[in-house]
Amino acid sequence: MKSFSLLTLDWNPPKESIPFSSHASHDTQSDSVYFSNCEGYFQRRPDGYASLRDFRKRLDELVDEKQGIKIRCHFNAFAYAFLVGTKNLDFHFPEKRENPFRTEEATFRNQLRQLERFEQLGEPLPKPAGIDAERYLEIRSLLGRTTARDERWVAAELLVSGPASLEELHDTLGSNKGLLAGILRSFAGLRITESRDDDQRTMIRREALPYVYFLVRETMGVDPLEILAR
After folding, report:
1. DSSP codes joined into one string, 52-110
2. What is the phi/psi pair of residue 32, to 5°?
3. How many other β-carbons are positioned within 10 Å of the β-carbon of residue 183?
4. pLDDT tens across 200-225, in order?
């Protein structure tokens, strides 16, 4: 079996990929298969890591059905970087360097540099770079507050673990459900998050990613992309 990872900045799976749960209906005569949103199988749930064990078992079954099959797994870049740092994911699913994230990486990192210079030197944010001061300050008014500890924890969890429901955030963070529901409403009100089409889990909007990433990095020291730069 040859397996490798393809990364994207957001959590919307590439059109040519299929949910892992659909592999049973996959044409086993094909030489390759492309699964979407694989980071979800590496997240700890109330039942532990049962989903990860199932993921590995079903991959082995697929290999038995078709020797030499190439398996591509789609991961969000932030989640992949976190899993590389904590679970050595790249050993089992090395990154294929030609992927959507690497195509957008330079632009995204430039946006982060622009935000740094805006904060440190007061330089204006050039709108051609895809960011603007009003939008950044709007999001900073929530995530940048000294007392916004819980908001930052939720933002960091959505950033490195991907889309999540209220129940999943409660299980992971242990925070009060009422508090979490209020935070999610605030995020939606500022257009920081939206619901994913296929399962209605909350995810960070693509447009808000540079602002959220920058604020989480600067206030919490969470910088998963640093791992991918090595």
Report:
1. HHHHHHHHHHHHHHSTT-EEEEEEEHHHHHHHHHHH-HHHHSPBPSSSHHHHHHHHHHH
2. -150, 160
3. 22
4. 789 999 999 999 999 999 999 999 88
Are 125 and 133 in contact by the 8 Å Cβ rule? The answer is: yes
User: Which candidate, 167, 185, 192, places its Cα nearest to that of 177?
Assistant: 167
HSE at residue 175, side-chain half, CA atoms within 13 A, is 19
Q: How far is the C-alpha of 57 from the C-alpha of 62, rounded, in Å?
A: 9
Neighbours of 173 (CB within 10 A): 16
Residues 6 or more apart in contact with residue 136 via CB below 8 angstroms = 115, 118, 125, 211
Is there a contact between 83 and 162 (Cβ–Cβ < 8 Å)? no
pLDDT given at position 34: 84
Measured N-to-C along each axis, helices 166-173 and 149-161 cross at an angle, to the nearest 10 degrees, of 110
Q: pTM of this prediction?
A: 0.86
CA distances from 47 to 86, 100, 131, 175 (A): 20, 33, 40, 18
With respect to CATH, is domain 102-228 assigned 3.30.465.10?
no
Q: How far apart are CA 42 and CA 23, in angstroms?
A: 18
The alpha carbon of residue 178 and the mean position of all alpha carbons in its chain are separated, in whole angstroms, by: 24
Instruction: Extract long-range pairs of 12-18: CB within 8 Å, 24+ residues apart.
Output: 12/196, 12/206, 13/37, 13/74, 14/74, 14/100, 17/72, 17/74
Q: Where in the chain is CATH 1.10.10.10?
A: 102-228
CA 141 – CA 178 distance, rounded (Å): 21
